[in-house]
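Researcher: Next entry in the queue.
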Amino acid sequence: MTRPADIRVHNEAQIGYYSRRIRHTIVPVLTPYVRRHLREVLTEGRVDLAHRLLEVGCGMGRFTLPLLEAGYKVEGVDLAPFLIERLRAEAGDGCVPVVHCCDVLDAPEQVTGPFDRVVGFFTLHHMPDLPRVFAAMARMLKPDGVLAFAEPNPFNPLYYLQIALTPGMTWAAEKGLLSIRRPIVEQAVRASGLCDLTWRFYGVFPPFLTNLPGMATVERAIERLLPVKALIAFQVLSARKP
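Model: Structure for this entry, 242 residues:
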């Protein structure tokens, strides 16, 4: 298990990584690519409008704001004060999001729930200690509550090429990708007391292709044909609190 001092160093590095500049990949713009991830997490998490949601790693609100606009009751948490400030600015005058700047491992009392659902988008692979993270999220859930997360597929070699070639991306910030493999997550889920782990792979195209007209139909057709999960781009997982 990761030492508290190591978690603190990791968190400081993450805050610095996301606070140096605004990264286009987390700017809130509702595109077909964003809608697909929202749909997968909401479906896998069996989320409805009556549920109280917590989004872990809300960032600038790329997924938080569309959820709020669609009528979902969602609160967000993120480590980086800069990102929380940007989320509030992006929300504008017509929306007052409830967001908290904190580590999910050390959340203040007002964030501890209980929530019907805990969700996240490309967040888990930035967490330094999955057993502690799942245990913390389990405590925030109501009985029979569900958590659901979308993550990159660590078996897809294109991610490692992207990390190597994209300016601003670093292996130090993204290496947690290797921890989002089923045996590692299963162990963390069991240790946290959660159950009914589900796992599904989806998506093929990068955002610039996904956002082209008509590509959603093409992508789903390709997904059905691909026999090798290493060719799929994303994974969505969920677990339930008994």
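Model: The chain has a mean pLDDT of 89.
Researcher: Noted, moving on.
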